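Input record (Table S2, row 958):
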Amino acid sequence: MTPDITTAQPLPLERVVIRFAGDSGDGMQLTGDRFTDVSAAFGNDLATLPNYPAEIRAPAGTIAGVSSFQVHIADFDILTPGDTPNLLVAMNPAALKANIADVPPGAAIIANQDAFEERNLAKAGYATNPLEDGSLDAFRLYPVPMTTITLEACKELGVKPRDAERSKNFFALGLISWMYNRPTDQTVTWIEEKFKGKDLVQAANIAAFKAGFNFGETAELFDHTYEILPAKLKSGRYRNITGNLALSYGMIAASQQSGLPIVCASYPITPASDILHELSRHKNFGVRTVQAEDEIAAISMAIGASFAGNLGLTTTSGPGVDLKSEALGLAVSLELPLVLVDVQRGGPSTGLPTKTEQADLMLAMYGRHGECPLPIIAADSPSDCFDAAFEAVRIAVKYRTPVILLTDGFLANGAEPWRFPDVADLPEIPVEFASEPNHDGAFWPYLRDPETLARPWAVPGTPGLMHRIGGIEKQDGSGNINYDPSNHELMCKLRLEKVMRVQQDIPPVEVDGDVDADLLVVGWGSTRGFIKAAMRNVRASGRKVAHVHIKNMFPFPSDLGDVLRRYPKILVPEMNLGQLSRLLRAEYLVDAQSLTKVQGVPFRSAEIEAKIMEMTN
Amino acid sequence: MAAVDETVPLTRKDYSSDQEVRWCPGCGDYSVLAAVQSLMPDLGVRPENIVFVSGIGCSSRFPYYMNTYGVHSIHGRAPAVATGIAVARPDLDVWVITGDGDGLSIGGNHLIHALRRNVNLTILMFNNQIYGLTKGQYSPTSEQGKITKSTPFGSIDYPFNPLSLAIGAEATFVARTHDMDRKHMQETFRRAHAHKGAAFVEIYQNCNVFNDGAFEEILQKDKRDSMLVSLKQGEPIIFGDDLEMGVALNEYGEAHVVRIADVGAESILVHDEHRTDPAIAFSLSRLAERPTTPTPVGVFRDIERPVYEQEVTAQLARAQERSGPGDLRKLIESGNTWEVA
Ligand code: SF4
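Output record (iron/sulfur cluster complex):
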């Protein structure tokens, strides 16, 4: 069905930021996801920011139980899920209260009027009804009786009112779909598929969705709809993707391109579990997954799998990395390929399990006893998780080393259009298993490749190459137990030197912006889009700034020091209390200034913009 | 690849590495090593297809002395590392060497989960009731009141019964042997190795430096007949210098020691290691509270249950049958896609 708009012509918009907010049980993530998918298929550029509480079902109607999903859609290439919403959909008073501070004056609020009754108002801490007391005068306020109309629409279907009420999120979706001229048939098909076998739920959701759409058209509450044309993105084929999904695909791609079967052993942990879920679905790719008894077992199993000639993988978040650190040390000592994915979340301890943060950089760098270096890679956008995963495997295999891949909660759950690669263009990841004795008819497991310093990978089942390795210090070459002081020092240096040789594969630092800039902004990980958006505005105002975004957190690109020293001022925005800035200061003796934020949500580009303005004044 | 002539019979030497064995002189570990090395040629698995995995502790040095593949991992984690190897390569023959501290204290969690998953591992747990490598602290199997460096006033911890723990953890094969009897060890190891799934063997092992004589009350040559209760499939459980003693079940179904003359031969429990219900095996594992009274040795339990890594492999095969081999292009392009010109 094509939208048949009888009201005024749609108003063209370049971009809009919509935030759906409701109770955790209201289905806001589903609603947001659906709107995102339709917009993606429509050809808009987009970015999303899901935000949900750690509790599965916090008490209904309370601020603690509010879940939200923000989506930014545009007809040009956007970089962030948007600083502030242009439209807030509030399903109840708590959702309004929890989000109103982010809504700028003049923005629109669509509220489910039915939910603004005494009990809910009290639960949210409102003395009077904000929809009626004039406190929202600064906004364009649209109270809509969503529950009533949804119940009405479902009446004929024989759905119990309690069940019908649950479909009100689809009413909201229908209304917003009308408002922004989204095609409806895709959503109807999607509802049919998703709720196959649950006929009543399916019918109720479709009825609610259509009722929402029709309400927009007939209620004359809104004088027009909006139109956001497809974005003129780089040509190619696209799909919408979240970071966790892209990462899972990246791992499978790396497995296919290396011929190494994946063994992914993980312990459930937010926000990383979806990678384990996704990988367990693809057994026909030869992917073996184990839900281990704990985090330590998970990495130990991955180590075992790598020893046996598979690709050992373990996925977790900060608390899991803490637990895995001893085994990571073993992997460094055994010099086996392995990838540990850390989907960072707010810490310390349990911290903010569902919120994003970038505070595990120092943990990844130094969180092990002894001299224990390993390569660290950071993904910088949801779709980049694919490339980062692929690269992590490539480095792990080539240099026979565990690699830590850092993403975060925002990347994991956030979505964006992905110009996916043609499979035929994916590079091979060469794997060489040892097949012959390498030292006077004997096999020396620590006789290194002169170029990469990688040791031979001899897998069980290979005759004549039987060897025993462990966490005790080994003699250079033979790999026999060795406690000699100078040998230990040599091995420490060799392990570091091997990891440093990853630099030979890292392309020169890419500087975006003005060569003669006064200020260089250095970022890493998921702040990329926010920094780029801030840069656009700053440069539009005529100031000269430049941006470098680091993906290889260890070792750094070999020319990074030279690049940093070219600029009089350096600013490092990061979602921690200054970790990369400290590393840069320590490594390069440069005056890297910090802009920090640890609020469980990404930077707003305006915050970065303001800091750049201040520093370039 | 180095050519292998599979027709040449292998000997103990083929399974022994050239590394100098470094346990204390007189340590019980030597006899376990000798038993395993000399049993290996009989098992019919070539050295390159065998992996020994260990944790940390005196016994965990074991893999270095085997001319097979081996991983000397970290404290307590051997069952997890071994699970990873088995899942990746179900074709390999994987052994776990652990001790009472490694397997029951720091690594207790991994041990019980490897057992309940029924990963195809042969697990040898050297129980010497002491921490040897760290020089003599009490272990989770030490008796209460034990005076050690960390318990100068006596240990107040109640000890684990390793076999009870294994049976409680749903182990499908549970056995006990001791370092004084090579033949019994080899027979037990052979059975454990033949078992499909996780096989748990407790070995009473003497640490002559820090806990000498821990098992002497049952293992001294002249005491064995009266103190070791040998379990034999399908046979009445009898023992004693004149085979005058036996094991019977009381009215609650608990195993206890009886004089055959008192109860009659027909009351003696006939050993059945294949019983699915673990109650009797469990009760037998508790016949002696400590190894100071008549103690059963041999196979307590040997039942069949699907093997973990085979099930993993079967799921892979079923997925391929259903959806065909993985197609990366299809996967990446699944869902809604669109073209930008
Ligand atoms: S300390 Fe005890 S267990 Fe360890 S090697 Fe010496 S005698 Fe054997």
